[in-house]
Amino acid sequence: MAPKLTDEQRLALESRPGQPVEIEDDRTQRVYVLVTRDDFQSLCDERLRRELEVGFEQADRGDLADWDLDEMLSEARRRRDSQTAH
User: Fold this and answer.
1) Structural domain tally of the chain?
2) What is the average per-residue pLDDT within 65-78?
3) DSSP state, 5?
4) What is the pLDDT of residue 86?
5) Has residue 76 been placed in a domain?
6) DSSP 3-state assignment of 58?
7) What is the pLDDT of residue 85?
8) For residue 21, what are the β-bridge partners?
9) Alpha helix stretches (DSSP H) within the chain
């Protein structure tokens, strides 16, 4: 079941076309981000491009290091486990 937009959410989206809208749950004080699926994909693509550009610039400068896949995966698992524990 997909929830329906409220009128307030719809107005917020219309006032900021193409931009994410932050919505706070007044009961939990958690903040959620509302964005269209297409805009979400564009934001993800843009972030990936920025991150890759940083890596390419480092490589061009010769700022390279060995890549320890096992350590990277261990760190990713630690982060995931700490996030799911909260």
Assistant:
1) 1
2) 92
3) P
4) 65
5) no
6) helix
7) 76
8) 34
9) 7-15, 37-60, 69-84
Within-domain flag for 81:
no
d(CA 24, CA 27): 9
Q: Which of 32, 15, 14 is CA-nearest to residue 23?
A: 32
- Nearest CA-CA partner of 40 in 60, 21, 64, 61: 21
Residue recorded with tokens 């994909």:
41
pTM > 0.70: yes or no = no
Mark 2-29 as b/e (b = at least 16 C-beta within 10 Å): eeeeeeeeeebbeeeeeeeeeeeeeeee
Average pLDDT, the chain: 91
pLDDT band at residue 17 using 50, 70 and 90 as cut-offs:
confident
Q: In this structure, is residue 75 part of a structural domain?
A: no
Name the residue with tokens 């706070």: 24
